[in-house]
Write a structure and sequence with these properties.
This protein is α+β, with helices and mostly antiparallel strands. The chain folds into two domains: 2-117, 2-Layer Sandwich (D-amino Acid Aminotransferase, Chain A, domain 1), CATH 3.30.470.10; 131-283, D-amino Acid Aminotransferase, Chain A, domain 2. The chain contains seven helices and 15 strands. Strands 7, 8, 9, 10, 11, 12, 13, 14 and 15 form a nine-stranded mixed β-sheet that branches. A six-stranded antiparallel β-sheet has the order 2-1-6-5-3-4. α5 (208-220) crosses α7 (268-280). The longest helix is centred in the first third of the chain and has 14 residues, at 44-57. The relative contact order is 0.15. The structure holds 4'-deoxy-4'-aminopyridoxal-5'-phosphate. Residues 33, 155, 181, 184-186, 205, 207-210, 244-246 line the site of 4'-deoxy-4'-aminopyridoxal-5'-phosphate (PMP).
């Protein structure tokens, strides 16, 4: 495949990064994943804004404009094949000459981007939807989960806990039994018709899909929607549970720790919300 590295488009096998890169040695970097279907990107501006927020927060000065990122993404979609692509963007602090924790001020960030195949766009009918069985575990990651850091070991270990139990995701709760998010998704529940999701803070990534869902629900439906603390007990007792991410969109959870959610099929509210999402997701 053709990848982007520091201004050049080249074959993946020819893309070389220094082992002294702090992205490699410290996980010192920020990343994004943007879906593109037939070259049409989903939530592009919001993804770039989140990446810029992350770069600002960890003081990496890059200075790529939104147009420059758009051009890179479009070029990668054109140069590679596939109707359904995830565009991976990665900025690390760069290669240092010595090993020191402090941010070096005189190095150039490393910018890398490539595309990979993702599943086709999710459907909104109950019989054909991709469904998710999940584990439920205590969140043992760091306290800066709002930063989309390339240091993903905490998330990887949590995902693996679920995978080892035969599940496709792991939903997490904090030390006082409040739901945070999942290892690579945000979480929503539905109880008696009310849709709830945890509020944005340092415990969760501000998901672009979460943001899109909230926007779409506010402007195209009269569902009751709340951003509020959700307890572990409430999640286990919910009528519906969803995990959301750029590629899953509204993902219906059918089992939590082996226990059925509702009747074990995607719910009625899920069906309505994934349909609205399908209809309006490119409006933002
Ligand atoms: N939380 C975590 C920890 C994630 O890795 C992701 C996926 N990037 C999400 C939430 C969902 O974010 P988005 O909707 O932007 O894909």
């Amino acid at each position: 495949s053709t990848v982007y590295l520091n201004g050049d488009y080249l074959a993946a096998a020819d893309a070389k990064i220094s082992p002294m890169d702090r992205g490699f040695l410290f996980g010192d970097g920020i990343y994004e994943v943007i879906p593109a279907y037939q070259g049409k990107m989903l939530g592009f501006n919001a993804h770039i804004e989140r990446m810029n927020n992350g770069l600002n927060e960890i003081e990496i000065k890059l200075g790529y404009s939104t147009d420059k990122w758009r051009e890179i993404c479009q070029q990668l979609c054109e140069k590679n094949h596939g109707d359904n692509l995830g565009i991976y963007l990665h900025v690390s602090r760069g290669a240092d000459t010595k090993r020191a924790h402090a941010y070096p001020t005189d190095i150039t960030p490393t910018v890398f981007a490539y595309v990979f195949e993702i599943p086709p766009q999710p459907v909104s009918d109950i019989e054909h939807a991709t469904t998710y069985t999940v584990s439920l575990e205590q969140d043992k990651r760091w306290q800066r989960c709002h930063i989309k850091s390339t240091a993903l070991l905490g998330n990887v270990i949590h995902y693996q806990q679920g995978a080892a139990a035969g599940n496709k995701e792991t939903i997490l709760y904090n030390r006082i039994d409040e739901i945070t998010e999942a290892s690579s998704s945000n979480v929503f529940i539905v109880k008696e018709g009310v849709i709830s999701t945890p509020p944005l803070d340092n415990q969760i990534l501000p998901g672009i899909t979460r943001w899109l869902i909230l926007n779409i629900l506010h402007s195209h439906s009269d569902f009751k929607v709340q951003q509020r603390v959700i307890s572990k007990t409430e999640l286990l007792d919910a009528d519906e549970v969803w995990i959301t991410s750029a590629t899953k969109e509204v993902g219906a959870v059918v089992k939590v720790n082996g226990k059925l959610v509702g009747d074990g099929k995607p719910g009625k509210v899920w069906q309505q919300v994934q349909s609205l999402f399908t209809k309006h997701k490119f409006d933002y």
